[in-house]
Amino acid sequence: MAxxxxxxxxxxxxxxxxxxxxxxxxxxxxxxxxTDTMSDxxxxxxxxxxxxxxxxxxxxxxxxxxxxxxxxxLNYGKTKxxxxxxxxxxxxxxxxVRDYVDPKFGSRVAKELEPIEIQEYIDGISEGLRPxxxxxxxxxxRHAQKYSMLPRTEDANPMKWVSASTIxxxxxxxxxxxxxxQLAENLPxxxxxxxxxxxxxxxxxxxxxxxxxxxxxxxxxxxxxKRGWVRGKIGKxxxxxxxxxxxxxxxxxxxxxxxxxxxMYGKDDDxxxxxxxxxxxxxxxxxxxxxxxxxxxAEKLGIITRDTPRFGWHNFRxxxxxxxxxxxQNPDVVRRMLRQSHLDTxxxxxxxxxxxxxxxxxxxxxxxxxxxxQ
Length: 374
What we know:
The protein is elongated. A 3-stranded antiparallel sheet has the order 1-2-3. A 3-stranded antiparallel sheet has the order 4-5-8, with no helix packed on it. The chain has a two-stranded antiparallel sheet with strand order 6-7. It is built from 14 helices and 8 strands. It is mainly alpha-helical. The protein has 3 domains: 9-55, no CATH class; 66-161, DNA polymerase, domain 1 (Orthogonal Bundle), CATH 1.10.150.130; 177-353, Intergrase catalytic core (hpI Integrase, Chain A, Orthogonal Bundle), CATH 1.10.443.
């Protein structure tokens, strides 16, 4: 079809079939319809399905950049159910936008981004980040359509056709209870108490560090989770499930009682794990303790090797879940203990190699009793 400002036309470039047209200002636009093997007939059918022919000669609307849409989404700061997001979640969202979305697509008009270019970008980043970047971009587009910053049409949201596998090759290092105790025993009293608390309760390190002595209800044998300490800020618990109280076993209560008698900050309104350097005004920093004490001690004891990735406080949480399920605890009981909203999340935390080996042995024994290990 001949080019003209009163009509659009089909063209092919770089292996793709495109529909090109001019808007009311005379600016030319191009939308990808498919690969260059698409016939003209199918291409025009696709133009009609997407309503692209209706854009010819019309003023441009919904010209928000992706940066503008992302800013609106981040400012909203709520979950799908309307609940305020935890500060740690909001910070992670902002970091993903700042480091991965804005540099690549921020200045682009959001509704003109093509699925294939987003897919190619996501495929090129590390596998652990792919689902996170896709999820944040998808949320940004859905929010924009909900609040009429984008048309509520299929072609205005490219994320429907963008995929990102959640499968990762990362496997968290799991400690046996004996290894966790050995590690804790070789730490200074402050870090030892924190390690035992983390190992026994499965609390997130942000929750442990945000504890005040008044949160420990000795007579009720429970610990209240009222807040989290993330990136130097105190915020609300991560979710409704996270705010549930944690059981306090007498043995753990005794460990905490010893620490309370030793610390300079033992009043009800003091932090259980305060920064001594800052006069107890705020909790300690988790990453510093890992770098200075936890990881070096674990390497020295042979629990991990120098090239073991991502070892720290969170491994205690993984280890507790694996141990409890290995002991026959119902996974839903473990989910409640870890205070997670979904069972699928709990199952990610479990590492059942020994149980699977045992099950494999039972199968082989039934196949041939002579294969039983004596």
